[in-house]
Design a protein that fits this description.
The chain is an alpha+beta fold and 123 residues long. The protein has one domain. Helix content is 17%, strand content 26%. A six-stranded mixed sheet has the order 3-1-2-5-6-4, sandwiched between helices. The protein is globular, with a radius of gyration of 14 Å.
Length: 123
C-alpha cells in the first residue's frame, strides 16, 4: 500500500488561526488512507464539527474539515504551496516557529518524526 500526504488546512474560524506544537495552519499527515490520517490528526489536536461542538462560530464555520487535500508525495505539496524550507525536526523550535500562523506547516510522518516548515510569500 502506498503512503500519501493529507493536508488539513485551517479555516479561520473566529477570524483567527490557531497553532500549537502539533498543528499549524497547514498540518500534513503521512498515512496510508484518509481514515488513518484523520486518526493521526485527532491525536495531534485537530478536531472536526467544531460548530456543532461549540468550539467554532457558526458565521465562520468549522475550523477543520475531514476532507483534506491529498498528495501522492511530500514534494508535490511542498512545490504546490511554495514552501520556503523545512525548519527542523525538534519540537523545541515550535515556540519560535508557530508565531508565523498562516504560513506555518507541521508535517507528521508515519515514522514518528515531525517537521516544521514555512510557506514563502514572496515567490
Amino acid at each position: 500500500m502506498l503512503r500519501k500526504f493529507f493536508n488539513f488546512k485551517q479555516n479561520n474560524s473566529r477570524f483567527s488561526c490557531i497553532t500549537s506544537k502539533t498543528f499549524g495552519f497547514h498540518t500534513i499527515i503521512e498515512a496510508y488512507d484518509l481514515q488513518q490520517a484523520i486518526q493521526i490528526a485527532e491525536k495531534n489536536g485537530i478536531y472536526f464539527d467544531g460548530v456543532s461542538k461549540g468550539l467554532d462560530c457558526d458565521c465562520c464555520g468549522d475550523r477543520w474539515f475531514n476532507s483534506p487535500e491529498e498528495y501522492s508525495d511530500l514534494d508535490s505539496f511542498l512545490t504546490d504551496k511554495k514552501v520556503r524550507f523545512l525548519i527542523g525536526f525538534d519540537s523545541s523550535i515550535a515556540n519560535i516557529f508557530h508565531s508565523s500562523e498562516k504560513s506555518s506547516i507541521i508535517i507528521h510522518h508515519l515514522n514518528g518524526i515531525t517537521q516544521y516548515a514555512e510557506i514563502k510569500n514572496n515567490i
